[in-house]
């Protein structure tokens, strides 16, 4: 039971590292706190791995979990949309749904699409880091400059994370 609890603690630590790595758009004050926590958790992870693969293994594990989860969520959402469409068509064909009900549903879906479309400029504004109202290569360079110090300091973790994301998404 001791090894099971140790595995559980290790898994929770790795999940915390993964969550902290996703906080790249934090403010400057929050950014340094996130970096300190990430550094501390990486040091713990390195102690757990005892130098056997170290940061690369931890990064790969975190990336694999994230990539696998993203692929599973994408697949589930796609299947749900197709199933809903097929069930709706079947219910309409069999007479369980009337034209008025479909019109009401259509108006709700159109409203949701309009809401999502209205939110898009806010998300694009987040990606426009230099504030010139255009998403350009300069925005990418600025975003990379925020991540670069951590990535350079922990090149093994960063490389493992990227490889893990690809592998997890591909296998998922």
Automatic annotation (TrEMBL):
Q: Where in the cell is it found?
A: Membrane
Q: Residue span of the signal peptide, if any?
A: 1-29
Q: Tell me if Transmembrane helix is a UniProt keyword of this record.
A: yes
A Pfam family that this protein carries is: FUN14
Alphabetic keyword roster: Membrane, Signal, Transmembrane, Transmembrane helix
Naming one, the record's GO cellular component terms include: membrane
UniProt cross-references to InterPro entries, sorted A to Z: FUN14
Q: Which domain of life is it from?
A: Eukaryota
Q: What is its main location?
A: membrane
Q: Which family does it belong to?
A: Belongs to the FUN14 family.
Q: Report the protein name in the record.
A: EF-hand domain-containing protein
Query: What organism is the protein native to?
Result: Emiliania huxleyi (Coccolithophore)
Upper taxonomic lineage? Eukaryota, Haptista, Haptophyta, Prymnesiophyceae, Isochrysidales
């Amino acid at each position: 039971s001791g090894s099971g609890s140790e595995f559980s603690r290790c898994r929770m630590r790795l999940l915390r590292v993964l969550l902290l790595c996703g906080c790249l758009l934090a403010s400057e004050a929050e950014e340094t706190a996130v970096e300190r926590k990430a550094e501390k958790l990486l040091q713990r992870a390195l102690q757990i791995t005892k130098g056997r693969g170290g940061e690369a293994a931890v990064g790969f594990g975190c990336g694999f979990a994230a990539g696998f989860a993203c692929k599973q969520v994408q697949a589930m959402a796609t299947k749900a949309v197709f199933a809903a469409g097929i069930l709706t068509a079947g219910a309409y064909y069999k007479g369980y749904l009337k034209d008025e009900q479909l019109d009401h549903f259509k108006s709700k879906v159109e409203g949701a699409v309009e809401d999502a479309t209205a939110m898009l400029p806010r998300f694009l504004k987040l990606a426009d880091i230099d504030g010139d109202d255009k998403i350009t290569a300069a925005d990418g360079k600025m975003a990379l400059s925020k991540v670069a110090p951590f990535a350079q300091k922990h090149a093994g973790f960063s490389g493992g994370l990227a490889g893990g994301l690809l592998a997890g998404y591909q296998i998922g």
